[in-house]
Amino acid sequence: MDQITLRVARYRPDDEETEPVLVDYDVPLRPDWAVLDGLNYIKDELDGTLSYRWSCRMGICGSCGMMVDGEPKLTCATFLVDLAPGPVRIEPLANFPVIRDLIVDLTDFMHKLSSVKPWLIRQDEQPVEDGEYLQTPAQLDEFKQFSMCINCMLCYAACPVYGLDGSFVGPAAIALAHRYDLDSRDEGDRQRLTILAQPDGVWDCTFVGECSTACPKGVDPAGAIQQAKLAAAQEAMKSLLLPWRSR
Amino acid sequence: MSLSHDVVIVGAGGAGLRAAIAVAEAEPRLSVALVSKVYPMRSHTVSAEGGAAGAISADDSLEEHAYDTISGGDWLCDQDAVENFVAEAPRELLRLEHWGCPWSREPDGHVAVRAFGGMKKKRTWFAADKTGFHLLHTLFQTSLKYSNITRYDEWYVSRLLVDDGRVCGVVALELMSGLIETITGRSVVIATGGGGRVFPFTTNAAIKTGDGMALAYRAGAPLKDMEFVQYHPTGLPFTGILITEAARAEGGWLLNKDGYRYLQDYDLGKPEPGPVLRSMELGPRDRLSQAFVHEMAKGRTINSPYGPVVHLDLRHLGERTIDAKLPMVRELCRDYERIDPVHELVPVRPVVHYMMGGIHTDRNGVTPLAGLFAAGETACVSINGANRLGSNSLPECLVFGARAGRAAALYAVEAPPPALAVEAQGDDERRRLDEDLLRRSDGPDRISSIRTEMQAILEDAAGIYRDGDSLTKATDKLRELKERAATAAVDDASRRFNTERVAGLELAGMLELAECILHSALRREESRGAHQRTDFPERDDKRFLAHSLAYRESGGSPRVSHLPVTITRWPPGKRVYGR
């Protein structure tokens, strides 16, 4: 059977390794196999110590993002035949601290996510008994694409700004804030804008657009950031011209 | 170190998050620990596609939803629980709407509903075909509002703390550090999902290893109706990725190798060009998966590199409908099969999808163990009986997640704090996990090889059709496998994010579940819903209008007893589809 070499970054701080090393593993090259199937082959058959995250293997849980030949990818949706003859270099997502092997630390992102208040904010909660908030298909389309983010972190691994300055809120969190801002049922725009207009918010983005290229779900975080900048600028202008409004 | 909260929730998918919010809203003074082996948005709820049932249309009624559910479950559902379920489902779905869930809409702005298998009316709410994804993310994002919910992301719970018959916390392994801590609470809710990974070919994510069922079972709670395992009729070969029932609800056809809509041969109705409710492709999942086996026996399936398949034909729906209603189906077919359902037939075969069984609870998620509650797929209330209807599981997570959360909150308010003595159980567990599991580098078997053998045993003996002989042999094989598992090698002796240690713990739990499935299936000498015995082909209401309860004996094997089904308004009848 055909084989392909996976060149996998190993990093085991327990064993007092201070630097990651690349280790080659030969795995079968099967027509249906994703990179993740290759990693599972290593784990099950060759070396049980290899550590990585995965779960749904259908591109929706967002667990299995890694650098594949230097690009951020979902390994369940990236196929070995497309990378043949190899070797295929597999490394942890760029721009994040590495816990071990292919596992990165997401603690910082989880804080950023909640910092943008990604939930529906209303002045008046309507009782559930009164039925749904009406929303036309066109109103739904306004924000729909920004609700498709699976938090896979590929956009953070692709973002040069985040790479240089980890305090930047970053593409996925801003896109999610924007998703709620655009939702016709939400009234929290100004609360979120105040957050996004702070240092480390939208103004840090230099509009490289790598985040939107990396997104496996067709979300356009770069577009969200530009729109949020516009909204922040308008809000700033309004408070300059109409200072009483900002109270 | 010991961590202490009022309510400890294990699992942060649909049911766990809903339970956490219910506690936070019912008793804002209580502190909630939300413990999950993955980040909440990785939970398997994310993979649910088609929708969530809740009767809201003017032409629909709670009675009809209840009847569809009960007949779909072949009269094994507890009808009092079903009545609560259908009454509260619409309200829960509306609540999700108020929290921002992007439900698909009618042109006038009202929530849209679609048809689904086994349902006589259109009552399935949907967010295109990523309903579970949107539901999970909405719940997770909403949960961030509540400051009294403390998350323990990527902590694996390995044991329940039990003091004098009362559950009062958990022992958990923090994956990142490898530290083992006790987290005490006045009440504990288990919401860890199902265990489809016991089988080789499943739609279930890697994390679905039935951990919570094993925790409760070992602590003394019975597992109910474990023999009822749902095969979904349309999984993609090799990956087992689910192609949602919504594909058939929108009008997709199932064809055999002759291009013939074979379901008409199995008492499921006559083929019409468009979808007909409770008929043909919109029959219940158990009957459709069984029909596949018969087609295979007749030599009318198609051979693929990954075994026999039939074809799902969506071509006549057209690109516009597919993109609007089934975008994920197209995406999955394109990415994983390299085919385009707009122009090509989709190969599909039955695939293990859902466990109707689980931890025995009442309508409030209360288990027989004091202080322990459960909800979602890990629990068995039971509203799903012998066969769950598609789109009932998401609202089940919401309705019973909320009920379990409220019940656990109430219990926590009234219960005394946990005894300090339980800390010692944490020390025992630390020894077991560190000293036993991390010092087994030279065992004769690998964890993965035992897992593979277990899966093969289950598929052979407890698949779509079963018989007494195979089940008996399988229980023997499994007992032997359990012994070997206790000495299987663990390559990885490190502490930091040791995924092999977790795999070993998961495997031990899955072996317990597997035994419960086999023993419960062996004892049920009848055919009902998803449990089909070739040696007992008829339903036997005289003997088996009853739930199976599997208790763990001191030797480790299950003891199965039976508990009558609760019947309120719908006496057992014949399941009729297509007429």
TrEMBL record, chain A:
It comes from the Bacteria. The keyword Iron-sulfur applies. GO terms for molecular function: 2 iron, 2 sulfur cluster binding; 3 iron, 4 sulfur cluster binding; 4 iron, 4 sulfur cluster binding; electron transfer activity; metal ion binding; succinate dehydrogenase (quinone) activity. The keyword Oxidoreductase applies. PROSITE patterns: 2FE2S_FER_1 (PS00197), 2FE2S_FER_2 (PS51085), 4FE4S_FER_1 (PS00198). Belongs to the succinate dehydrogenase/fumarate reductase iron-sulfur protein family. PANTHER family: SUCCINATE DEHYDROGENASE [UBIQUINONE] IRON-SULFUR SUBUNIT, MITOCHONDRIAL, SUCCINATE DEHYDROGENASE IRON-SULFUR PROTEIN. This is succinate dehydrogenase. It comes from Actinoplanes aureus.
From TrEMBL, chain B:
The gene is frdA. The keyword Calcium does not apply. This is Fumarate reductase flavoprotein subunit. Its main location: membrane. FAD binds at residues 11-16, 36-51, 211, 377, 388, 393-394. One of its GO terms (molecular function) is electron transfer activity. Its cofactor is FAD. It comes from Actinoplanes aureus. It is found in: Cell membrane.
